[in-house]
């Protein structure tokens, strides 16, 4: 069974249709890469899935249960909070709280939502920091960390609530090329541990290496989706061919 099913997502901003009939499924342990030109709707799709925007139409199921229905979208605050917990989100800008240390950033949500007692949450946070290679940075503030280190703390923070699906929106695009690798290695390691992930990325080589499935979105529609080998080596449409060509030239 699919862990995530998105059916017929439609979203407009004013007169502009930004998502037009988006359908896809993801199985537990799979990595989905979303690629496509700027303005195509990738971030909007992630934000709709994470309940940061509301699709006007569409259905989303997690583990077979409908958690969003655009036609019947009355949700209490408590339901919304509960539904959001299925997802962890890592943004392009790391968005750590500057006044808290690395470990404090990670325990914030688990403590607030009483995931476990504070001691257990802290133990878990330290374990996650170790997993992203930052065991020695627990007590450092974000301003004392490099961009790549901050992004790894953000990943640990997203993992701390044990989400079913971890979502990334261009996790390396605000990093210098030489530190992109350390973040991609952590994501690759999560993929090897069968973490279910959706990754919006401009890193085509990485998408090809890590993804089980790739979606190419242009003008709010899925133009092609499938196996990375087919998407990258045998694209069917001129739009995808042109896009991949432009990425190679960039
Ligand atoms: N809050 C908003 N209000 C109005 N229009 C918006 C809003 N957010 C996004 N859009 C528009 O929706 C379209 C899709 O934007 P989106 O950010 O989803 O694209 P993207 O594929 O993530 O692009 P990029 O690769 O540049 O990040 C764009 O035309 C954008 O201008
Ligand atoms: Mg975007």
- Uncertain runs: none
Mean pLDDT: 95
Q: What global shape is seen?
A: globular
Radius of gyration: 18 Å
Describe the structure in your own words:
The protein is 38% helix and 26% strand. The protein has helices spanning 42-49, 77-84, 102-112, 118-131, 147-159, 177-192, 204-210, 228-233, 238-249; strands spanning 2-13, 16-27, 31-35, 57-62, 65-69, 87-90, 165-169, 197-200, 213-218, 221-226. Strands 6-7-8-3-9-10 form a six-stranded mixed sheet, with helices on both faces. Strands 2-1-4-5 form a four-stranded antiparallel sheet, covered by helices on one side. The mean pLDDT is 95. It is α/β, with parallel strands linked by helices. Helix 3 (102-112) crosses helix 4 (118-131) and helix 5 (147-159) runs parallel beside helix 6. The chain has a domain at 1-86 and 191-250: P-loop containing nucleotide triphosphate hydrolases (Rossmann fold), CATH 3.40.50.300. Bound molecules: adenosine-5'-triphosphate and magnesium ion (MG). The site of adenosine-5'-triphosphate has 11 residues, from strand 2 and helix 1. The site of magnesium ion (MG) has 3 residues, from helix 1.
How do you describe this structure in short?
This protein has helices spanning 42-49, 77-84, 102-112, 118-131, 147-159, 177-192, 204-210, 228-233, 238-249; strands at residues 2-13, 16-27, 31-35, 57-62, 65-69, 87-90, 165-169, 197-200, 213-218, 221-226.
Task: Summarize this structure as a short list of keywords or feature phrases.
single chain, about 250 residues, alpha/beta, Rossmann fold, six-stranded mixed beta sheet, 9 helices, binds adenosine-5'-triphosphate, binds magnesium ion
């Amino acid at each position: 069974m699919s862990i995530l099913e998105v059916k017929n997502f439609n979203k407009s901003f004013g007169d502009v249709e930004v998502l037009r009939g988006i359908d896809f499924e993801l199985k537990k342990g799979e990595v989905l890469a979303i690629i496509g030109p700027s303005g195509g709707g990738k971030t909007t799709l992630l934000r709709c899935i994470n309940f940061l925007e509301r699709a006007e139409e569409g259905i989303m199921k997690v583990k077979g249960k409908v958690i969003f229905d655009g036609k019947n979208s009355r949700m209490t605050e408590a339901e919304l909070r509960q539904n959001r917990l299925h997802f962890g989100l890592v943004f392009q800008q790391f968005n750590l709280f500057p006044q808290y240390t690395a470990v404090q950033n990670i325990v914030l949500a688990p403590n607030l939502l009483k995931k476990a007692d504070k001691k257990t949450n802290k133990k878990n946070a330290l374990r996650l920091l170790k997993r992203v290679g930052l065991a020695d940075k627990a007590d450092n503030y974000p301003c004392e960390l490099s961009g790549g280190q901050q992004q790894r703390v953000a990943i640990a923070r997203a993992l701390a609530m044990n989400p079913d699906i971890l979502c990334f929106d261009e996790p390396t695009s605000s990093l210098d090329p030489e530190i992109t690798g350390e973040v991609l290695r952590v994501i690759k390691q999560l993929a090897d541990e069968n973490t279910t992930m959706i990754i919006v990325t401009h890193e085509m080589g990485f998408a090809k290496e890590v993804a089980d499935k790739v979606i190419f979105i242009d003008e709010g529609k899925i133009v092609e989706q499938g196996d990375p080998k087919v998407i990258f080596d045998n694209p069917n449409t001129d739009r995808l061919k042109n896009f991949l060509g432009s990425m190679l030239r960039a």
